[in-house]
Amino acid sequence: MRARRAQRWIPLLAAIVAAGAIASAVALAAVRASEPVEIRIRYSAFVPATIHAQAGQPIELAVRNDDPIDHEWIVGDAARHARHRDGTEPVHDARPTEITVPAGELRRTTVTFDASGRYSFICHLPGHESYGMVGTVVVRP
User: Fold this and answer.
1) With 50 labelled, which of 18, 89, 97, 129 sits at a CA distance of 20 to 30 A?
2) Which segments of the chain are extended strands (E)?
3) Contacts of 85 by beta carbon, 8 Å cutoff, 6+ apart
4) Contact (Cβ atoms closer than 8 angstroms) between residue 55 and residue 115
5) How far apart are CA 28 and CA 30, in angstroms?
6) Do 76 and 22 sit in the same domain of this protein?
7) CA dist., res. 67 & res. 42, Å (int)
8) What's the pTM value of the predicted model, to 2 decimals?
9) The domain containing residue 50 runs over which residues?
10) Do the beta carbons of residue 96 and residue 111 sit within 8 Å?
């Protein structure tokens, strides 16, 4: 009789253990989500070339330049990029969506995208965009 009662508790205990494991996994994912997204610049290319963000939620980026030359990381819509194609400012650091990343250095920025969509990030230093220094931020609603 006692063995049957104990057997009734086994599924409940298994469910409690499973719920604990799921809660731990969710907590770990939340901690990882708060880590910065790393973008590396190597051989005049952004790696990864596509990143994802959530509309209305800040995303911290760590942009590391492994090249021996300076680069910039500018993200935005077509109008922003058109302005930068016509004339590049020598240094970017006043806006979170426009940063200069000197050779061999790391720069951090935090960006919040208000609307979902696709936003390009580009290095507008002379010749770099045509060489392929472009990427995309996919922003989910």
Assistant:
1) 89
2) 37-41, 46-47, 50-54, 58-65, 71-76, 98-101, 106-112, 117-122, 134-140
3) 124, 129
4) yes
5) 5
6) no
7) 6
8) 0.73
9) 37-140
10) yes
pLDDT tens profile 24-43: 443 334 444 579 999 999 99
Cα torsion 39, 41, 44, 47: sign: negative
3-state secondary structure of 131: helix
pLDDT digits (tens, 9 = 90+) for 66-85: 999 999 999 999 999 998 88
Per the structure, how many domains does the chain have? Answer: 2
Q: Tell me the mean pLDDT in the region 41-59.
A: 97
* Sign of the four-CA dihedral 89, 93, 97, 103: positive
Considering the domain architecture, whether residues 7 and 62 belong to the same structural domain is answered as no
127 and 59 within one domain: yes
What's the confidence (pLDDT) of residue 10? 52
Residue pair 113/75 in contact (Cβ under 8 Å)? The answer is: no
From CA 125, how far away is CA 67, in angstroms rounded?
14
Residues in the chain: 141
Please check whether residue 53 is in contact with residue 113, taking contact to mean a CB–CB distance below 8 angstroms: yes
